[in-house]
Amino acid sequence: MNQIGTLQRPGETRWSSHLNSITSLLKMYNATSAVLKNLKNTASNYSQRGDAHNAYNRLRSFEFIFILHVMKEVLGITDNLCQALQRRSQDILNAMSLVLKTKDLIQKLRDDGWNELLKNMISFCETSELDFPDMNAQYIVGCSRNKKEDVTVEHHYRVDVFFATIDTQLQELKSRFNENVFELLTFTKTLDPKEFFKLFDIEKICILVNKFYPEDFSQQEKECLLYELKHYELDVCKHPDLRKISTLSELCRGLVESRKLVMYPLVDRLIRLILTLPASTTSSERAFSAMKIVKTRLHSKIEDDFLKSSLVMYIEKEIAENFDINEIIDDFSKVNDQRVQFK
After folding, report:
1. Ranges for the HAT C-terminal dimerisation domain (predicted)?
2. Sequential DSSP letters for 262-284
3. What residues does 152 pair with on adjacent strands?
4. DSSP letter at 161?
5. For the whole prediction, is pTM greater than 0.90?
6. Which whole number is the average pLDDT over 241-268?
């Protein structure tokens, strides 16, 4: 990772792609309906006519339109967060703030969004010449004419679809960004060198170690860390060269190059632990995507070490592009005598 909170895959997410598709379909709904209506009567064979007929009926159903509008509202709220978490240099504190705002907006949609959604649905149905169902009528399942006892049309769409969809999104956000994650990421920002170590806080750093890394530091090291941090604050945080850097990874390299690593080994260890944090599932998703490409059917017997090395090279393409092949060959040749001479 380039810095804590930095995500590895920039660009448009699949969520934005879904949102754009839904928005486009709603805008082109009448045109799409007209094309399908024409195809179900004029297609060249029965199979195509049948497919067009089924697609037309599904497209013109109230349930299909309702679900599209619900998805548009939910994805519209979460799209900004999805985009932010994909940026290469997203600030963690701003990202966490955006998570909280997204939760609030989704909760507000659940509490107050139903009437507005119905209003939009009525307007859309009138524009597209669709029948709006009686919300007080008894809900009938599909075309089977089976009725759900004591379930009205409004209850079905409000509880079984609208509330259920929103509750799933809220639960997903709460599970991925729980209180422990918020606290951990907030504490890790205290070591971030951005803006001249503006967020540096010795007390929070000590809490970070005691609460989240109790097994990585002995009790004696925890006591020594407090005094090491005091020296670190006056030395590294004021160092003219180290004050210019803006990411934890650069800070880690800077400590090595300036040999401050020898003076602050405990701080360096903590920084390296923080740099291994998976701030998002994005890195894991990229690893699994790469595994599908690297470990193919022909490579099914590849050993773990070789697979791991291959995945690192594939995932970190930007770093690998800077490698000099001739230097690699020279280093490999020096390890031991080879049967085949590379040069």
Report:
1. 263-318
2. TT-HHHHHHHHHHHT---STHHH
3. 138
4. I
5. no
6. 85
